[in-house]
Write the structure tokens for this entry.
Amino acid sequence: MHPLTASVVGGGTGGRLSLRALADSPLFDLVAVADLSPEVRRDLAAEYPGIETYPTHEAMFAARPTDVVCVSTYPPSHEPIALDALRLPLRGILVEKPLGHTVASGRRILEAVKARGLPMAVPHGLLAKRAPLEILERVRRGEIGELRLVEIQCSGWDIINAGIHWLNYFVTLTNNEPLAHVLACCDASTRTYRDGMQVETLAVTYAQTVSGVRVVMNTGDDVRVNADGKQFLFQLVGTLGVIEFYGWDPSYRVLNAAFPDGRMFTPEEFAVSGHRRHLETMAAMVHNNEPDYTIPESSLLALEICEGAYLSSKHTCAVTFPVDEFDPPPRPQWQPGEPYSGTGGGRDGRKL
Ligand SMILES: NC(=O)c1ccc[n+]([C@@H]2O[C@H](COP(=O)([O-])OP(=O)(O)OC[C@H]3O[C@@H](n4cnc5c(N)ncnc54)[C@H](O)[C@@H]3O)[C@@H](O)[C@H]2O)c1
């Protein structure tokens, strides 16, 4: 099998993860990178001798079309770049998370890729690490019974930048089950921005699937995580047990009938990076001609939860799915927690 020629658009943190993966993998031949910044192009040319560098994706696509393109720029440019890439005789595409800056944009990308029948990678790191993958298998084997609740505590990060990885994992745990609604509240008192976005100081995001599986995610600058020394905590609560893990950490703990006192597991990590695993899985799809959109679809659902959460906080209402078709209702003249005057309408909550 010939290696697939590959190029990357955007040579920042995310793009470098793809560049390193492509350079290390025998399944790919990394030939070009496009970045707006001359300094970035200069650094990458030094780091990857022989790589062609271009100032724009248009110039690169015209001069050096490749089998695979990685779209690793800021989310608002994912759509125009991905759609331009789809005009090439492409065989596979990687689009970084979040697929787009909005659900609508992410959906357009995914639909265009599907219409071409092209294999696609969206490199969510938890889906390429041993511990979270083992946990997925245990949940699917029923080791904690029926999954009821996933509680996530995440300090130092927000819903859209890290939360989307965590929510993508929740969606995967439910086998991409459609969501019913999301309800969230964001405190913005510190006016924190991160990675080009205004984000929350403290937030809670609460969503449920149509069958009722819940996710509760606490994010923000300074979330108190109630597991010693951990920045992240995930608790998967089932009818027959609990599994907890700690984000990118390699360990996890199972509490169920087989391990009634709880047992820690630390599986050996994969020898290759997450981006390389995602890209090599995509290469296998290219060679077998069997695109599988499970991860891109889970990524879009995760983006819907993120967008829905911010919308819910902004309009103080539950947001239903699909989020890009949700129209916020007018704000009701009603203040939960205030005394009811006895007049002025409303619904008698004692009549269920
Ligand atoms: N999957 C992961 O683990 C992971 C990790 C980091 C970043 N990301 C994602 O990667 C994407 C980029 O984020 P980042 O952290 O790398 O940002 P960054 O600021 O580190 O780098 C972005 C780079 O893209 C270049 N760029 C921007 N617009 C461009 C355009 N139109 N054409 C060519 N080059 C362009 C910039 O010059 C810069 O060098 C985001 O979607 C982010 O969420 C994913």
